[in-house]
């Protein structure tokens, strides 16, 4: 067996000097003196380190045939001894070898050239006739070794036991010309030992959603796994899209995912002892594998911690855990700042590197609602927008439990305390940039942010567009300041939802009978509802929603519009007072404002992947026209731009090279509510930066 210790010994220097181990391999061909500080052993400022790439000939390009694979995970971690592919509990192993199931007539839906550039692949390789064969799993890239990863997870707060890669397959790890290590994997390539009752397939609909959002989140500047390719086929599987008994044939589709690693919190839960629900991890009691996995992850992806604390494993494990907590806090803070919900924040969907991972029923908010739930299966709102930070913290606590055989809980507990502090620091740091508060960090800034969110909540305003428009308000003292304030107010009011949509949005998650029963239960037996995953605060909010619905019965559209105007007038006065403190006496207001606008527009996106935009692209793709998927990808690659040139998407269209459309349709334009979707054309007649048209309000995401 290749243990981490064996790997280190194998690569030991023969001349007596130390060589830095980076990602389980040599840190370049240079020798490193043992008395050099550990900081000099680091290969880059990236969160993962580099390996020396092979020597390329002058002008030599990477091709599908010559990618440099170095599949360290399969060398460093135990592999299942069972060779046959059937559903089972996998004990004593982190991976099981599997093979992709071929598909019929694979066809490229979309390729992210920017993501594939991480593998050094030029665009000429992306247009090869056999490209779809390689990225559907029909052919394997030379050097690839396919395997499925074993992990467990807490799902909706309960330990679910073994889960694993039920539809995902590790392909290997590619070392690019910069020496960066990138794991690549298929999603939707067929059955594995972890497929349970499923078929190991993904469909066009869900694959397009994951492909587009992976790239959208990356281009927003949020840590995430990447999506390189989306390939569909003529094979179909049956799916009950709305869980109503109406089955539908959908095309088998495979995406290529890219990340330094896909190791997750749940990877460490395979060692979990049996809990009150009678479930346990498949490798319970196998502490030696837990230590092996910890050492592999730290030495490979946290080399600075490995180098600094090799002689003190307890300190090493603590520093590793602390860094995971801090990265997770920063990641979820960034989600909150763009109004994005993951939807399924189980421990098996939490990356050990603090990356956004596993895109399912996610959603960007349109109308702001702190209780926004994007997952139709989340009846109690466990994974709602407002709950995401505390759920991520809860998941970090479960990670501490998972590694407690290596480092006691009392030792990791201080790191947990850092989560809230790091979250607030990251959240307010980003929010201040979104509001253009650059000169001073004042105590009232927190109240300003909260009041803005409260005003959006009270008026049903669009999250993305409301933030974006704030840069249109110049600093006090600027020319036409009051005229600009009036324009911004009119725009903010135009972004408020209709009375009917507001009524729908205020409805409680729980039916009245269920809410009444739970309220009585809490009154008679305080604390009992906590065993159902609820709190007294949750019930109070549900009751407030029910009361709000009653109140709104007497509202008219005119009354709501009037109250919206008043609310935004009040907030803008508060905002302008705060902006006044950004301007020091004698300062160049024009220069300050230019810097402020530049900062705000690089932190408040103009384009996000709204559900209706994704659904329109999916609808066209299901008809065989992939042009809109590619157009949306191009828009999402430039989320902070004022406009996006989509002309070249016409010539890149595949398979419909002669698709006719207006190259300017859907690019940057003032938000309009008059847009509607034409089901007979691939041309969107809405703008990509508009709030949802009427047909898209309440769109169900599956």
Outline the secondary-structure elements:
Elements: H1 4-10, E1 21-22, E2 25-26, H2 72-76, E3 95-97, E4 107-111, H3 113-116, H4 123-126, H5 131-134, E5 147-149, E6 152-155, E7 158-162, E8 168-175, E9 181-187, E10 202-203, H6 204-219, E11 226-239, E12 248-259, H7 287-301, H8 303-309, H9 313-338, E13 340-341, E14 363-364, H10 388-402, H11 409-434, H12 445-459, H13 463-469, H14 481-494, H15 499-505, H16 512-524, H17 536-552, H18 557-580, H19 589-601, H20 611-621, H21 627-636, H22 647-652
Antiparallel strand pairs: 1-2, 3-5, 4-11, 6-7, 8-9, 9-12, 10-12, 11-12, 13-14
Helix pairs in contact: 6-20, 6-21, 7-8, 8-9, 9-10, 9-11, 10-11, 12-18, 14-18, 16-17, 20-21
Please characterize this protein's 3D structure:
A hairpin with a 5-residue loop joins strand 8 (168-175) and strand 9 (181-187). The chain has 702 residues and is an alpha+beta fold. It is built from 22 helices and 14 strands.
Please sum up the structure shown.
The chain has 702 residues and is α+β, with helices and mostly antiparallel strands.
Name a few traits of the molecule.
disordered N terminus, globular, 14 strands, alpha+beta, single chain, 6-stranded antiparallel β-sheet, 2 domains, two-stranded antiparallel sheet, 702 residues, 10% strand
